[in-house]
Amino acid sequence: MTKFDWTSEVPLAAETTFLWHAQPGALTRLSPHWAQEIVAESYPPLSPGSVAKMKTSLPGSYGLVRRPFSSVHSEGPSRFSFVDELKKGPLSQWKHTHEFSSVAGGTKIDDHIEFSMAPAGFDSIDRSLIHNLEATFEARHHRMLMDIEFLERMNAPLMTRQKGKRILIAGASGLIGQQVAALFSTAGHFVRLLVRRTPKLPYEVHWNPDLGIINARDLAWADAVVHLGGKSIATRFTKKAKEEIRSSRINSTSLLAETMCGLPEAKRPEVFVCASAVGIYGSEAEVPVDESAPAGDGFLAEVCQEWEDAAARVEDAGIRRVSIRTGVVLTSLGGFLKLQAPLFLAGAGGRLGSGEQGLAWVSLDDVARAYVHAVLTDYVRGPVNAVAPDMVSQVEFAEALAAHLHRPARVPTPGFVTELVLGRDGAKELALADQKVLPEKLEETGYQFAHPTLTACLEEELGGGA
Predict the structure, then answer these.
(1) φ, ψ (nearest 5 deg) of residue 273
(2) What CATH code is carried by the domain that includes residue 420?
(3) Residues β-bridged to residue 174
(4) DSSP per-residue string spanning 420-438
(5) What is the pLDDT of residue 358?
């Protein structure tokens, strides 16, 4: 049996620190993306017998090779403690005891892990795993401090002991939605999720925007409605795909907006925050643009404009509306970075097209925080660009990614290759799009970026690797 111990401190009282860990979404927020992908958190959180499911990354893989891992909770040895034990995974044994105790200025967190490999006797594997655990817990500590600082700025009810807001979220199963829901719930707000399937958990409620089905009482319950739904645009722009992309956004947004407008004035939510995208500016940029720029040309620009118009209908009913124009979200959990990183690791990475195109990127943490900022900041309204302030070109992105992975960036992907994959229109508006976008409104309204530079984002999302 191999033992691993880690001690850290956070500037919160022990009871508050334990309570934060006991909120839905805590495991999602705490887990470094390169180390763990959360499949399903335990419910109720930390209750004995509840099971958490995840995919844990192999050491040295930068989060690109993951194995299923599940653990079951049990009571800990003291009041503020709990235990995770292996239920299923690539080890023969795993027991993780978490203990929280008061110290001057906050809480000391003691993590004690006992594990064994199968088969035994592979000392080099044990050393590799311990090195990976050290990196993981250092990253976990950084993430928790980062979230504590953000929640303090947002006057989180968990810390102020004030009553939280009621947040209704559509699209919470996606990469961004999962993080948004976790940020709100760990802050102490009351979160409900709109789901298309049959609800399985007490905080889930059913809707079916394709059939126009929604319960108006669910919207009347909410102080804020957040909508992140929509079919993925990472596909060939066939006639059928275009219609699905458009209808999945417009129909669902219109249903939410019209239902909110139909409520009695006293029952209406205070704010509606709806997804949009920087694609609204078109695929060709001569100069950097902020939220005051007009819509551009192309299919995505037209969809985004119609999408935002559908969301803006709530303004006629006195509901504050925010449209989050998201850039390319960089995370090892999915999307652009997850597709590009393996190519670079194989020595086959490089710029896309000419490399001169602007890449309007944002970290997963920052786009999730942008939604929380928009809901809780009363003077944020209208379009908001969720992009990092560090504008880069495709060639600069390729060079930064290659440097982080210690690989060359010598194999450019010609434009015709992306056309073969995405079609002519898809390649032009996605992979080869030239987008230079500024986060003017986020900065004006006091938002502080977690990852303002590409280097910081890659370190957060990919870790140090081997």
Answers:
(1) -110, 120
(2) 3.40.50.720
(3) none
(4) HHHHHHHIIIIIT----B-
(5) 94
Could you tell me which residues come within 8 angstroms of residue 432 by beta carbon, excluding any fewer than 6 positions away?
Answer: 283, 352, 353, 357, 415, 418
The domain that holds 69 is classified in CATH as 3.30.530.20
Which residues are registered as beta bridge partners of 227?
170, 274
Residues of the chain with pLDDT below 50 are 466
Closest CA to 327 of 363, 356, 302: 363
Same domain, 228 and 305: yes
User: SS3 for the chain, per residue?
Assistant: CEEEEEEEEECCCHHHHHHHHCCCCHHHHHCCCCCEEEEECCCCCCCCCCEEEEEEECCCCCCCCEEEEEEEEEECCCCCEEEEEEEECCCCEEEEEEEEEEECCEEEEEEEEEEECCCCCCHHHHHHHHHHHHHHHHHHHHHHHHHHHHHHHCCCHHHHCCCCCEEEEECCCCHHHHHHHHHHHHHCCEEEEEECCCCCCCCEEECECCCCECCHHHHHHCCEEEECCCCCCCCCCCHHHHHHHHHHHHHHHHHHHHHHHCCCHHHCCCEEEEEEEHHHHCCCCCCCECCCCCCCCCHHHHHHHHHHHHHHHHHHHCCEEEEEEECEEEECCEHHHHHHHHHHHCCCCCCECCCCCEECEEEHHHHHHHHHHHHHCCCCCEEEEECCCCCEEHHHHHHHHHHHHCCCCCCCECHHHHHHHHHHHHHHHHHCCCCCECCHHHHHCCCCCCCCCHHHHHHHHHCCCC
- Please count the structural domains in the chain: 2
Query: Do residue 184 and residue 289 come from a single domain?
Result: yes
Residue 237: predicted pLDDT: 85
| Domain membership of residue 297 as a residue range | 157-462
Strand duo 204-206 + 81-88: pairing:
unpaired
- The reported pTM is 0.95
pLDDT tens per residue across span 95-108: 999 999 999 999 99
Residue 420 confidence (pLDDT): 54
Q: Are 86 and 94 in contact (CB under 8 A)?
A: yes
